[in-house]
Amino acid sequence: MRMKNEGYRFVTMSSAPVKDGYMDILYHFDKDLDLKHLRLPIKEGEAIPSVSGVYFCAMLAENELQELAGLKFDGLVLDYNRTLLQDSTVTCVPLVNKCKVAERK
Questions:
Q1: Contact present, 36 and 3 (Cβ < 8 Å)
Q2: Boundaries of each NADH:ubiquinone oxidoreductase 30kDa subunit domain copy (predicted)?
Q3: Where are the chain's structural domains?
């Protein structure tokens, strides 16, 4: 909320594994071409508070990270339940597990 009150716009967010069992969530903001980045270290499996209540557009990045990196966001204003980018038949998390693609006949 502080970033929004200071006039920063939400650009995107990303995640990166840092060591076994831990990840960093990186939030990227912009104000007049001045970029700020915030890092939130988390333990894998830990739910992350959603920022989509403050920056509605963050729900796209949060849904993407849920689908592709296996993260979970609490309080997400619009949760696609891992179907925003992937078909509902996908059963693994692409950036965490090696997904096998079934051949269509």
A1: yes
A2: 8-103
A3: 1-74
